From TrEMBL:
Positions of the LD-carboxypeptidase N-terminal domain: 2-104
Domain LD-carboxypeptidase C-terminal: 153-304
GO MF annotation terms: carboxypeptidase activity; serine-type peptidase activity
EC number: 3.4.16.-
GO terms classed as biological process: proteolysis
Gene3D superfamilies cross-referenced by the UniProt entry: Class I glutamine amidotransferase-like, LD-carboxypeptidase A C-terminal domain-like
InterPro entries: Carboxypeptidase_A_C_sf, Class_I_gatase-like, LdcA_N, Peptidase_S66_N, Peptidase_S66C, S66_fam
Keywords associated with the record: Carboxypeptidase, Hydrolase, Protease, Serine protease
Family assignment from sequence similarity: Belongs to the peptidase S66 family.
Gene: ykfA_1
Protein name: Putative murein peptide carboxypeptidase
Residue spans crossing the bilayer: none
Amino acid sequence: MGLKRLADAGFAAEVADQVRETWYLHAGTDGARAQAIYDAGRDPHVDILWCARGGYGAAKLLPLLDELTEKHGAPDPKLLIGYSDITILNHYTRLKWGWGTMHANMPATLSFNSMAESEFDTTMKWARGELCEPAWSGQTFEYLACPPSEPVRGEVVGGNVSVWNSLYGTPWSPGSITGKILFFEDLNEYHYRLDGLVTHLLQAGGLDGVAGIVLGDFTNCDDEAGTCLAAPVEGEERSLLLKEGLDALPAERAQPLRPQVPQRDALEHMLVAPARDRGIPVMKGLPVGHGPGFAPLPLGSVFEMTPEGAFNLVSWDWLSE
């Protein structure tokens, strides 16, 4: 279905043989996947590498891509499209090969066929290199911290929080992000997990010198407070209740260990407050991520955060002048 929608939009898509393979948790061995990416990058008939989907395993390819690059040279500049686990490859190909990269939906996902027309149209136009406004053009977004008095411009980097965070401490660390705008989104991460990821990011210097932070969708990122035995009722033997374990407790006999924390409050504690302490503007609500918004976002492009809450594209090398 995704391939048909691409074809209807005028793209001649070829599916790499490796995509249909199965090995361990992945679509092919690490070597096969790295070779497929490199070969497509060297193919003069290929302009865009559009990842089929995300998932897990892109980080394993980085040393193999390094080996191929050292042995044969970097492929000519192209555009890589994908998000989620592809955050790793977006970063690598931009850093090592000088490619254009776009955080955008992928054809093997169900949402690729149901995304809003404005989001799909912008994705197609930007993939072709056509100048157009972002899918959210005309909208303004809320500042959670440090609304700027003047426009803030910077190169946009980042992607999925958990994947971006995993780059720190590796040879492919993002390094200095001074003056850049950091974009984050995520999926299916409990608050305590996100808090731990952001804590590591902060301690690794991942916000040092950042010009601004823009938050997309944090889909199904909810709290998980755990449960404990509620106070006993008259005549109840607690030892009997605990004999079978907490999992076997009737629902009415269990209670949360603590109050549930709403997502907005969790983001305030883990990310917004530290950003505020550093004087970093934080904007929330960009319709980018794992849904409900699937608008494309070019990474490595220059955007502007305005005092009024607009987020405007300034320049992107991939687009035609």
